[in-house]
Amino acid sequence: MSIHLTILGCHSATPRVNAHPTSQYLEINNNHFLIDCGEGTQRQMRKYKVGFSKINHIFISHLHGDHFYGLVGLLSTYGILSREKDLHVYGPKGIKEVTLLQLKVSKSHAKYPIIFHELSSKESELIFEDEKVLVRTIPLNHRVYTNGYLFTEKEKPRKLNMLNISGYQEIDKADYLNIKAGKDIVLSTGEIISNSELTIDPPKAKSYAFCSDTSYKPDIIPIIENSDLLYHEATFLSDREDLARKTKHSTSIQAAQIAKDSNVKKLIIGHYSGRYKEISSFKKEAETVFKNVELAEPGKVFSVN
Amino acid sequence: MSIHLTILGCHSATPRVNAHPTSQYLEINNNHFLIDCGEGTQRQMRKYKVGFSKINHIFISHLHGDHFYGLVGLLSTYGILSREKDLHVYGPKGIKEVTLLQLKVSKSHAKYPIIFHELSSKESELIFEDEKVLVRTIPLNHRVYTNGYLFTEKEKPRKLNMLNISGYQEIDKADYLNIKAGKDIVLSTGEIISNSELTIDPPKAKSYAFCSDTSYKPDIIPIIENSDLLYHEATFLSDREDLARKTKHSTSIQAAQIAKDSNVKKLIIGHYSGRYKEISSFKKEAETVFKNVELAEPGKVFSVN
Fold this sequence. Notes:
The structure is a homodimer of 305-residue chains.
Chain A lengths: L2 E7 L13 E6 L2 E5 L5 H7 L9 E3 L5 H4 L2 H10 L6 E6 L2 H11 L8 E6 L6 E4 L3 E7 L7 E7 L5 E2 L1 H4 L10 H5 L4 E2 L5 E2 L1 H4 E2 L6 E5 L9 H4 L4 E5 L7 H7 L4 H11 L3 E5 L9 H8 L5 E3 L5 E4 L1
Parallel strand pairs in A: 3-4, 4-5, 5-6, 14-15, 15-16, 16-17
Antiparallel strand pairs in A: 1-2, 1-18, 2-3, 7-8, 8-9, 9-14, 10-13, 11-12
Helix pairs in contact in A: 10-11
């Protein structure tokens, strides 16, 4: 049970020499996800040694260029790399048409299957589930239809406390599944052995909430609360709260307020506007509201173990 | 009369950390053109200090991703930079639909006018002309419809040789236009003063031919012959001529043969396949056929004065 998040890009609007638009690589419970894919993402993936072939699921928050203009290039590269396995792309309605048209004009339609999962609901929905991980949308409020994504590990069964179990000759392997599932055991004497005596807590399931781009939207709090890690955009400092409101972005203070009210363990901020020459002020400002704040920077890895 | 060509990217297929897909910035006779626009071009433009606002004309050779996936990002950036003046985009039929759809889904349709010039002719045609420069297509042979572009300075009128002219009191300002146009002057005595005595040759008009991507296609020679500068793709070395033929690319030797048979002054090669770890072999191989060969590399500037 662990999360490793690699920031590939974390700047808003236009790519610059040392500013890369949004993209993140998430390893969670042995799943490998790409989140957003601004122009130049595949170059950043190579720079930070992200294994292209590991990724089977790409989640796009919204169809602004700085979050998806790198997608078609990556899909083309998968073709050049002779990918054969399915690739799932999650994103707003429209993503399929715009992507396939680009592949069509270049006559480079992928030989591997691309499965588009187009989203249009305004409610949070479960969009991915396997034996290890769940992914839910986090409806956000931006100038175009936008979702954040909540990635949650599935709880593992309880672990057997073999030292204590061996003290009861009557308990045998046939009981183990019930014990792992949290059940108490009734001995032939009628004595009830509490499950807590027979098991150890499993590793706690971890969760990561990705929220970009959005205006301050406190109604996401019930969805993301108690997350181990929250990425929340902070395009502006509070000095430009007016501009944040107008462009439907958040300030550093607003991101921190969401983190505090959601009781998350750590907040990562990013999507810095190019108008700010240095980013340390984002952290300083957020820390006035919430203690555990980190700045997203390309190549930085955030782990939850 | 001068040409300055800046290589922004010159590698084939997929962007990598130190490999950038095709794009070139051409300054010719005070015109500023962008040629091809692979993913990451706008970042390369910033890196090599290309003034975004100077460019009013973008020429796209063909709709393979490594030649145009950076276009929509650049157009979006022009929107963010509040561009107001016209931008002309030349490229194969289909470029308008695919570009506008991307701008539409992101609701970022440019407020400045984008004028698309869609090409579909298989014959060379004049597609741009102003008082200083002509641009013609160079029909190429690739897996999709592809054009190279020939950029030619317009000849300036002949220069007045004022020292010699002052020797003839009878010749006055009213004659200057005729003299500049190359005409002889007849004096009242009936004596004919040859134009060559009254004028100096103007600076020679320069030309640059861009040819990417294409299989070996000698019928372009009449179009590009005597160019000062020729960029011709050389995706492979001769060891993989089979692959060049199959993928409709050229080898280094073939590019050099075109340069030789066209009597150009200098050949620049590029579009190197990622299979080659170093590029010096491309130059060595080409030099066995044609003497004046240079390797395209990001940031390199080639000038003709």
